[in-house]
Amino acid sequence: MVVNGFVNVVISNIERRFSISSTESGTIASCYDIASVLLLIPITYFGGQGVKPRYLGIGVLVLGIGSFIFTLPHFTTDKYHVDGTTENVCRVLDNVTNSCSTGESFSSLSNYKYVFFFGQLLHGAGAAPLYTLGVTYLDENLPQRSSSFYVGIFYSFAILGPALGYLVGGQFLNIYTDIGSTDLNTLTIDSDNPRWVGAWWIGFLISGTMALCTAIPLSGFPRSLPGSSIYRAERGKEAYHKEGADDSEKVGLKRGFRDILLSIKLLVSNPTFMFLNFAAASEGILLSGFSTFAPKFIEAQFSFSSGWSAQLMGLALIPAGGGGTLLGGFLVKKFNWRVPTIIKFCLLSTCISIPFGFVFLMYCDNIPFAGININYDKDISSANLAFLGDGQLNNTCNALCKCTQDEYTPICGRDGKMYFSPCYAGCSTRVNNSDPKQYTNCGCVNFTASNETSYLAELGKCESSCPWLPLFMPMFTTVIFLTFITSMPALSATLRCVPEHQRTFGLGIQWIIARCLGSIPGPILFGTIIDLTCILWQKKCSDKGACLIYDNKQLSYNLLALGTVLKILSVIFFFSALMLYKKPPDINTEISTDTMTTSMTSSVNSKIANGDLDTEEKKKSTEQQS
Fold first, then answer.
1. CB 127 within 8 A of CB 7
2. What one-character DSSP code corresponds to residue 453?
């Protein structure tokens, strides 16, 4: 809820409040995976041989501390400054005040990104044991046939959590950021205004408190649950079989650096395991990038508020992400799929998802913006929108107004164009007692008023007439569903294609590869691509802040190209994993009941011969075999 929910929901508000670019906000999201990668090898190796729940409890405690640190910028800065001391209208005779010497500059505010980096690093450090030791703890204490289903439940809650974060976090963004210290009656903007900053920090206080309350009972679970030794004994081996000498039995005889190197060597030489890791990395770039910036994309394309965009994403994520994850694990359990069948299913689902990705060909045209994509003197009905650059904001109609770009106060003229501010629209008079604010005497607005009291422009963006939302959301939801439905089967194939005593360490290696090549560069890559489509940056003096306007067409095309390439790579990796898989010589694709009973009996007898089962467990094993 906190890492993949609240963080992604508040990205656009944090950018706006602390003058951060999308590349920098993408780096904030990536810090979670950076910390996880740095800690995965020691945690999975030593934690795999220690008491796993103890590591999990400490991790959740660190996660909660990270959430509290993430809120610090709100409590250590001045109140959010929305409006200037004077109305931002055309004042021909007034002297222009120098705003560079007053208030917080963009550069000083953007330095708070380092606090967000640190908080997100603690989030990653705390979550490192959760998806490695937590998964293997479940897998070790469940029958093999049921393991995938229960792990699917675990991951489904890991999807429902972010969905809840999107929905609840979106509601918090409708609350003004400075609760209690600002008179809401004096505010001149609402949540639909592009300058609005919601209460982004509330969710982190809630999640931090919940994490602290969870850490203590979680750390109290035992090393293994009753009956777990029986479940280990009944597992039939499906590990990748390499002809020749088998070094896998040497792993785990003694702890140390040489043992780690031998484990890494065996895992790297397993081609099925490695190509499944590369597929996870390719899918990780997509999931991390879209989960971070999908609300921002919806906000930019359809001119929605950040809160409503986040809630739309949450509504899509609950059935698609949670349902896909749970269904994938259920299918493996229901049909008792083996490794080759699982990989074929992942390959088929990925191929089907590629055509649905072309939903990004449906983009919304940018609203006509005077001086940005349309000239001041052009009629919107006959002009082709072509981006002119923010240097064209000055025009003869506002030449005497002494306008500056310090404050972005968009208004919608009755001629259908949007203007940077009332000043740049040449408006010199505000209509008294109007809500929202309305302006008259606008020299740049090409509209003839019917009478003297009629307004020429109104505060806020012009409404978008884009018709694609009812078609975009179902197709985008389908892409999410087809992506998540492969997650549990792919995880099951990864766990099964390595020896049992290497599963925890192998899962840690997979997370390292998937994060170093996937979820770490993913948000940064997506943020950079989004920044490349920016056509109007926030400016104050010599500082550059967040992006104000994006090229919707180029934004959609960039995301389409990136998503298609990554999906094709996933298809190649799944196909390679399937072709290079070698099953053990004593395991057939179809296993009868008698064969499974024989395999279970020999496995238990082997453990009895080695002295691995005590007297009580021997009796239970004999009863289960009967």
1. no
2. T
Place of tokens 């931002």: 88
Number of H helices, E strands in the chain: 23, 7
User: Model confidence over 102-146: pLDDT tens digits?
Assistant: 455 556 778 889 999 999 999 999 988 887 788 888 888 887 777
pTM (predicted TM-score): 0.74
Helix 202-218 vs helix 52-70: angle between axes, to the nearest 10 degrees?
160
d(CA 458, CA 443): 14
pLDDT digits (tens, 9 = 90+) for 578-621: 999 987 665 444 444 444 444 444 444 544 444 544 544 555 55
Do residues 427 and 456 lie in contact, with contact meaning Cβ atoms separated by under 8 Å?
yes
How would you class 186 by CB atoms within 10 Å of its CB: exposed for 0-12, middle for 13-18, buried for 19 or more?
exposed
C-alpha dihedral over 230, 232, 237, 243, to 10 degrees? -130
205, 143: one domain: yes
524 and 552 co-located in one domain: yes
* CA–CA separation, 286 and 170 (whole Å): 22
The tally of domains found in the chain comes to: 2
Domain that holds residue 511: 2-77+112-364+466-579
Residue-level pLDDT at 448: 75
